[in-house]
# Entry
Amino acid sequence: MPEKDTIFSSKISYNGIFSFKDFYKFCYDWLKEETGLDPLTEEKYSEKIEGPVKNIDIEWNGSKELTDYFKFEAKVSMKVKGLSETEISQGGAKVKTNKGSIELSIKGILIRDYKGRFETTAFKKFLRGIYEKWVIRSRVEEYEEKISSYCDTFLNQAKAYLDLEGKK
# Structure
């Protein structure tokens, strides 16, 4: 059984005006292109309509092989509450967009020995402990830093996107 360590876990919240469709596309495209998560699958998409507003719950999972021993896995959750359509005036023209609150969270996970090469015997499991602690310790720390950086940058980019959208 491969070892999974949650390296990064954080979330952002936003309440205001934004285009949900554009934000959804921005987040999905950024994760695919900047982190190389492939496949990035939508595990859950649920919509609850309550009168003129929607509540949306989305979960994405993606992974990327870093080496033949390390793998990066990301779990993204997006919860949108009170999403409704609104009109704003932009450059003298009326534009339809959305308003509501959104909570975006991401977990970055480092998976070690994802192919299970050290899982066949108890002795190999023991060797894996020594290998990770003494031989590749700096490499483990390097990949942990890389995963933290991916996840933190994603949240910062999403927050910046929402802040820019809300100021239009």
